[in-house]
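Write out this protein's structure.
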Amino acid sequence: MNLDELLAYAAGHDVRLAADDEGQLRFDAPADAVTPELITALRAYRSELLDRLGIGPAPERVEVARGPLSYQQDRMLSIINTTPPSATWNVSMRLVLTGTLDEAALRTALDAVVARHEALRSRFVDDGDGSVQIVYAHREVTLPVVDVTGLPDPDRLERAENVSRAVAQVAFDLDHELPLRLQLVRVDAHTWWLMIVVHHVACDGWAVSVMLHDMAAGYRRALAGEAPDRTPPTVQSIDFARWEQRVYDAETRRRRADYWSTALTLEGFALDLPYDRPAPPVPTGRGRAHHFRVPPDVERDVRAFSMERNTTLFPTLAAAMGVLLTRLTGQGDVTISLPYANRDRVEFAETVAIVACPLLIRVRSDTAPTFADLVDQVGMGLFAGVDNMLPIGWIYDRLIEDAGGGEQPMAAVSFAYQSTLNLELDLPGLTAEVEDRPTGASRVTLICGLIPRSFGLEGYLEYALDRLDPATAKSWMDGYLEVLATACRQPHRPLHELTGLPAPVPAAA
């Protein structure tokens, strides 16, 4: 097989590639995927793989800082270290650049981004005394380029997709590589695809926007002949972790845990969703995303109702998700997880790290007379949750303690309104469309989100193929849109009298 066929095979057969500190190519794959042809191709294209996939070792790395993990990072790594390697935690983007691209200026801009932000040149490891993040001195960033312009149209796009998919779907080996992977694909004379893949342990949604806009600013500086701006932000990833340690003193932790003890119950986490199949004993990790858009007339109604209720879109959108979950489960008391940016302090504005943390919201449609009342309930829950912010693991610990023991709960649904994700980029001579690229992996939790774009609200549902079929995922999100449309047009009618709501989906036998 040639190199592009190897990349496609790796993406389609869960062949995970990494490099050790000595520059040796390492791979992990299911037994049935390891064929003589694969071994031969890996040996033949070792150098090209290390270069093109951006996973090569960093010889002579110089450690410049070492510090604690944030609570979010520590919890994420504890999950990662107890599950098989996968691309589940890859944050993968493809920038479709159309126009005239200056490759040297782009490389300079990306180099400055990595120089500014320590998280992008850190390893997250257990050094024997516990988990730490280790920052390395900046080394010049390489931007591997694949040019497919010489191929005929069908083959050209197929190979470009194969390269993109392989970059997105290769798991990071955090013990040996840095949490950033780059790849540029030249598709035709006026189109480039820039793949940016970051491990979630080093970034959140807000951080993605910071990185992209730093890159755009650096590109403009490079085109103008100005020196790159490598000024570090006020707070780096280690600084944030140390701030967390200071702010969550014993008294603060006790007081806030008391709030969560009264605000939540373990029962609200057990959602009896009508999946297509029961959970397998061992999850495969295979996932997919269903994408949709909120119709313009529905979005207008959502905005008008939110303005009338003197609230933002977030409580309205989240309350509608609560209504959908009630319809799907028959449960009037559900708990969902809402990612919160956690960037209230001005010094966190330019920090590239995982600063966001989940807020747990109890949505009780069984006690809310109308949708308007439910939106008020969710809004008050959001304010109270922010005032009593705690790492989610501590909240779970307190709930288990209150119940006298039991398994740690997990919110079955995470719902996000990503208003802080700014994907509009100013790149002279280019139009840039930022696309979320599927990694082919999934977490146990259903992840639903809405992103404000220039053309309206764009939505997605990430789900595990172990549990849901694509048709079911689509029907659930179609139902969510029906809830939004109906509830915002009849917000003051009793919830049980709302018309046009989706019927519950029968549970699998």
